[in-house]
Amino acid sequence: MSSLENLLSRVLPENKKFELLHLQSPPKESHSVFVQQRSDCTQTVVKVQHFFGLGADEKIFYSLELFVYLTIESSKAIEKLIFVSKADTNGYCDEKISVKDITTAILDYIVTLDPSHYLSKEIKVSGTSPGCGPSITRCTTTKRALKILKARHDSKKGDNCPNRGFFRNIEGKDPDWTCKICLFTRSEPQYLFSESSRNPKKHILSGEQLLRWWLSVIDKILVRHFDSGTKATLQIPGEEESRTLRYLSNNKAPFWRVGDIFSGKSSELAIFAIPVFPDDPKGRFLEQVVEENRAKKVRLSDFWVELQVQQEFRLGCTVSVIGVDGRIPKKCFGPHNNEVIVMPSKKVFSIVKSYIVGEQYDTSEGAYEAYANLRDFLHLRMQRSLLEIRGCRKSSEPGSKGTGSDRNAPVRPLNTLTVRRKVKKSI
Ligand code: ACO
Known about the structure:
By secondary structure, this protein is an alpha+beta fold. It contains 10 helices and 11 strands. Strands 1, 2, 3, 4, 5, 6, 7, 8, 9, 10 and 11 form an 11-stranded mixed beta sheet that branches.
């Protein structure tokens, strides 16, 4: 596996210096992304968040947030599910870059990251988590929930669940795990860079352009890494199958089809077949279904039809759900030195992330501040630094934006006098 530095260096312009923040939250036992009919005592789900921020000329200009859910059985990862949550830019990059290629490079890295990397340290299994016994869901009555909690408490004493306790990576085993990718595409003026839509230089793809953009990213990942038994799906709520198929016609990987990777039969109850991710609009609709007491009525086929009527899905903007389910035949490796900062706790992870997402980007000041605060925090509090990456893509190479007329605007000089440095946040 190439290092993250190499992967990014290949898509960044020659001789320009970039700096990368790559944060990882500490792996933690989590609920399954599905509401389970019966919980599987032999499996445990571990959730990890990754957050990337890319900067140049002392400004952060790009961010990507994603989650990895590892399913573990007998101390071994059997599934790595990557939920790509949000990609965003703020328009303050003075270089000619391809955000699509940057995003593809990061996904190249995440997809081929050995799952046992997440298990290389001991993971504390929470006593109240649903590793064993039935899960507590919104459908569970209070009386039943109390019974489940008591059973969990009792089972902690005479612990007979094979996955309870600590995990250790089993080194030297052949990779035998499936890799899933899920994402929901919906264009918004801004996601991670507040007020950045007020920067006239920010480029925002429309819903349809964004869908094609993500299809092209995922298609490249499929061609590069996945084996021939892979399933890749596109679902556009409310769109006819023949129209959805048109979006797939230019894709290079042969496994694309209309649908989703999770559904079993269309007669299956949606509540058990649709995964729920953080800040996920289809998850919000599932919650609504439960609140309306329709959890045991809404079948998968009804779910997609009803979803299109939801406000988040019907504002005239094309939204879609993209999925991949397959295997990666190549041997995967752990991260290279210095390319990931694994945070000691979720709290510190959120503090460092907030240096980027907590700024306002209506002017370039936010981009300068985010960079300066990150650099100083990492240096002073963690004795770490942003990863320096020198681009090596020649302007004549395909994918280079060397000739794009809209991107040839003169680089604005850095006026350091206008940059206000914030008082450092402390842990
Ligand atoms: N003027 C004209 N065209 C431009 C400009 C510009 N200023 N900047 C880029 N382009 C063109 C590129 O040349 C390229 O064209 P091509 O496809 O013909 O080669 C195309 O736009 C895409 O350019 P990229 O550099 O790959 O991407 P972009 O800069 O548009 O960034 C992004 C993509 C991050 C989605 C951006 O549009 C954005 O920040 N959108 C707002 C937030 C958002 O909706 N995020 C997606 C959420 S969904 C999810 O993340 C799962």
